[in-house]
Amino acid sequence: MSKRTFQGGIHPYEGKELTEDKEIRPLLPKSDLVYPLSQHIGAPATPVVKKGDSVLVGQLIAQAGGFVSANIHSSVSGTVKCIEPRMTSNGVKVNSIVIENDGEYREVDAAPVLDDHKLTKEVIRQKVKDAGIVGMGGAGFPTHVKLTPQNDDEIDYVIVNCAECEPYITSDYRRMIEEPEKLVEGLKIVLKLFPNAQGILAVENNKPKAVKVLKELVESEERIVVQSLKTKYPQGAERQLIYVTTGRKIDSSMLPAHVGCVVNNVDTIVNIYRAIREGKPLTERVVTVTGDAVKEPGNFLVKLGTNCEELIEAAGGFVCEPEKVIAGGPMMGKAMSDIHVPSTKGLSALLSFKVDEVAKCEPSNCIRCGRCITVCPGRVVPSVLAKLAEQGNEEAFLANNGMECCECGCCSYVCPAKRPLTQVIAGTRKQILANKKK
Amino acid sequence: MTGVLIATAVVAVTGIIIGIFLGAAGEKFKVEVNEKELLVREELPGNNCGGCGFAGCDALAKAIAEGNAPVNGCPVGGDAVALKIAKIMGSTVKPGAKPYAFVKCSGNCEKAKEHYKYIGPKDCKAAMNTPGNGPKACSFGCTGFGSCKAVCEFGAIEIVDGIAVIDKEKCKACGKCVAACPKHLIEIVPGDTPYMVACSSQDKGKEVKEVCQAGCIGCSLCVKNCPAEAIIMQGNVAKIDPDKCVGCRICAEKCPAKVIKELS
Q1: CA-nearest residue of chain A to B127?
Q2: What is the CATH topology of the domain spanning B35-89?
Q3: What are the pLDDT digits (tens) for A272-281?
Q4: CA torsion B169→B172→B178→B179, rounded to 10°?
Q5: What band does A438 get if pLDDT is binned at 50, 70 and 90?
Q6: ipTM of the complex, rounded to two decimals
Q7: Of all helices (H) and strands (E), which one includes residue A290?
């Protein structure tokens, strides 16, 4: 076990027992599928189909709108109904392609690469790019950009983020247990890009079964190790994970590649495997549907574009009217105002709760106890930053290293005065980044 | 006794030498100070708000004295200060209406719908993290939590009925609210702007109607009827060019949503 751990962090209620033993079940969509053109970081994709076109499973329907952008493929066969702005999980309308499902799931001809000799760096990168793979932990950064650092030889570690530190979510865990070969095989493909790199499968030690399975698999692999990490939230945050596994430190102005690291999520690596060995683009992902407000929590292999309401239905529907539904984990996920939205590449979980505990918190004055400082993994002073953010003092916010915040939510979680620290800081960070771009 | 005399002499001679040296150095390394710059600086308000686009009042005074900025460059001082500075600089200035900030949204509590109950910090930037960029059903509209009010140093902004309202008289057009609004709803407009479209929604007409009674539905009636061709459509919202506008009022009368506001 890795002895190193990052400073700060918390141990929230894990809630993983609800779904950790639930096998991944494929879920077939019933209604129309909606593909928002912007479900990744970077430029929105440009549609290459028009109304009335018939499409097949895996067919390219929208092309990357730049280098930092990603292709989008149809996950069903059918006809393009329209291209219009549709509501997404963050409550904003995004231009989307709507496809009517004919229920036949006719596929395009796959072109798998099985021969190792044909697997050159260019082929791998091109295939990953063509498959429209993005970071599937939630951020949605296009993976081909991550896999194209300035110098391949300077990458020392390829880290697979198997931490899954967010409470409740077990989608990555199920992937590790059910398809560990694909994960290891996918990592081996990525390692071909970086001749000097070592592969690290970084798993938290609250998943002993996954650690065991993966350790057995990589026993004969020279370049891959499994690291069992001391469980703590936010282990899966990029900066914390790099520090824990390699001892290297980065700040908000640096990329992992600057310290010779590339970090990818479990589902991302599995999809790299699928893209190359099976020749299939990214059209589905594992989503954990859980919480105390659904009847039968579970893990589902969801066709991208499926309406979230169908996911809830698949989990037995609501027990009662939920007070809160969250897209993503409870710590960093976003509350939803409407569940009639499509599932996207970055949706790792759908949580619904009977009681909105956060809404019951009445914020009071800061009592200067310093707990937020103790738990902050970014080593900033959340109470001061939140105050500066409230005052709109961006200059002082920057001087106090406000940009080092990773919005993990630890400060809000421990605050005895129930102050919404993360939300206020995150708002100002967003504003500063937006103004910088202009 | 002689000891005292020697000491006095040494100190006196040293003093004279240093005095001559300092005098010479002062003459040699003299920094040219523009007298006008000092006079201009005295007339400026000294808030160092940065509304002029320079790094504080000192920088503006220098720029004016060097002729790199207009004599009415200070938005805070207005005409009174501009006239005084014009006198110092020996130029003239035409007094005119001063620019001010304008909020391009008119969806107050009565006219715009709420999408859901918002619980959290009353801060527009923080509300951007919630679905639809805040509880207002229109994701483009004013959140009404007053992030602009918080940064206004002149007390010119009030939140009235869930929407930011700017006091034209108090506003000094410093532009802080423009930067603070996460939805980019505030614009600095010239003082003599006759008409403005008080909406920023890029939604289509039907969707606008569903969420707000005071939104631009993008019908472009104003564009078609403007005799001066001063109105263009920016996406789904009309935009009036104040330089071309002749103030004929036709657009405001034709607008079915009554979203074109008469300003002066």
Answers
A1: A427
A2: 3-methyladenine DNA Glycosylase II; Chain A, domain 3 (1.10.15)
A3: 999 999 999 9
A4: -150
A5: low
A6: 0.77
A7: strand A284-290
